[in-house]
Amino acid sequence: MATKGKDFAGLSVALVTPFKQGEVDYDTFGAQIEFQIEAGTTCLVPVGTTGESPTLSHDEHDRVIDFVVQKAAGRIKVMPGVGSNSTAEALRLTKSAEKAGADAALQVAPYYNKPTQEGFYQHFKALAEETGLQQCVYNIPGRTGKNVEPETIARLAELENITMVKEATGQMDQASQILGTTNLTLLSGDDSMTLPYMAVGGEGVISVVGNIVPRDMIALVNAAASGDMAAARAQHHKLFALCREMLGLATNPIPLKAAMEMLGRDTGEMRLPMTPLDDAGRVQLKQSLTAYGLL
């Protein structure tokens, strides 16, 4: 049984959305896209959690996707976040991304309203059947409030356009069950879990830390994919502290935006209710970036 979604194996980067004086900073955004293309990243993932999608208007959301697709110009894949807790709204966002020329759609599990497993199935089924894009089911119960169970993902895998799952439960057993019962491409939703997931059959990561060190994440993924586990472990341990800080100092993307500001690649500006990293966190982050060799 051939693996679906295999063309998205490797490093995908969950892009930040740069802001300047309250507006999307498209000049900085364009530079970030070029940075990823030059690094050899497989896919750009705009307007996800890392891209602060909950604070973007629908018009901004559509415009960001259109901008990324146009800037990518076929040189790199684009899989925007288009999920919602409303199936009708997710469908509108997905159709808009499809019209813009996106290559796939990242669909976060409906959040807050906590559907049943049948509700999850019918939601993703509608999105898969009513649009032509490849669909990546994004399972992150720590944010959405409820797990999409492996049995539900197995049912969804029977649908032609559902080709990937972004696994952000942190549960190795769940990943193993999905990989053992489906032909989906499994992508890690946590940087620090990339190697463990790939060890059981995952094929890459949708990365946060890839915003700043894409080449190092690519080296990890490529080593694991080629079976060079010694090299993959070395990269994992090199990246581990940085990965943990990107997600551990404060809610994503607060530490990442602070890091990118320190590196001169972003203003660091966020939209409420997201607030900047506190002083103690900035000191710790600066020490980590210095120790890594980035500052």
Automatic annotation (TrEMBL):
Signal peptide: none
InterPro entries, alphabetized: Aldolase_TIM (IPR013785), DapA (IPR005263), DapA-like (IPR002220)
One GO MF term attached to the UniProt entry: 4-hydroxy-tetrahydrodipicolinate synthase activity
Keyword check for Nucleotide-binding: no
Listed SMART domains: DHDPS (SM01130)
Residues noted as binding pyruvate in the record, renumbered to the chain: 50, 206
Statement: the UniProt record of this protein carries the keyword Transcription: no
Family named by the database record: Belongs to the DapA family.
Name used for this protein in its record: 4-hydroxy-tetrahydrodipicolinate synthase
Organism per entry: Posidoniimonas polymericola
